[in-house]
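Re: the 316-residue chain
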Amino acid sequence: MEKQRVCVTGAGGFLASWVIKFLLSKGYTVHGTVRDPSDEKHAHLNNLENAADNLQLFKADLLDYNSLCAAIAGCSGVLHVASPCTTPVADPMVELIEPAVKGTLNVLKACTEAKVKRVVAVSSRAAAIWNPSWPIDQPIDESCWSDKEYLNTIKNWYALSKTDAESEAWEYAKKTGLDVVTILPSLIIGPMLQSTMNASTLTLVKIIKDEAEEMVNNDLRIVDVRDVVAAILMAYEKPEAKGRYICSAHNATTQDLVDKLKTMYPMSHNPKKITKGEDKHKLSSEKLQKLGWTYIPLEKSLADSVKCYKEKGILL
């Protein structure tokens, strides 16, 4: 696809900031949607290389269709990264599910109106992994969808919001013919560009700071933020990209992370007690790898993450 004008939703977030950095470095003109372009927390975007000439921030809200139309007008592609991630929630339907679903549909409708050539929507592993009927010894691939009834039963509202939003996106694409590709990342780690903490960064920081007396030795599926960006850009730029793509590099446990961090940072504190977690399915990124995707070693992701946290004063 030609390098033209691309819109990125949720521009100020952890993943979207890196998406914009990569796009600008590749010569794209970028429209970024944020709630308030004048907010100081978005200063890091305006400081990116080529931002002065090629980045324009738009005041937009996922639930305000007209604001999205203004941001997407003139764009040949849209990378829909924004999604509510509030926890805990008092009213999951109002705070998570409706904004995720309606917001995604508003973006897609605005894309149809603007005659956008391709949309890459960022979903989540959460839209694939919660399926009790999937055989435990079989890695989860793109054919697996999270079971909505099961998610309701276990009250996993975030996973339900991502599953609903992605399934609605595919229904819309089927009805309208809009070219949609979805990326399903696992737990995203790596250095931050933004100044505020995000949920996945908090997971690592809690382990390093020893902020928990006890941790469960869960199976974690991990991927570096820069590798997720690479997957998003492949899905956008490669004409042969189709359907869903699971984006996960490392199957590791909480204990694995603790052990690696102990080796790399002997002075760092670690959880006093790690209790046994449940075995979970591995994730398969074979389809994405066939597209040419490769990933950063876990040790480098951890090293770059901790270096960034120290530079930003999150870790001393």
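The mean pLDDT is 91.
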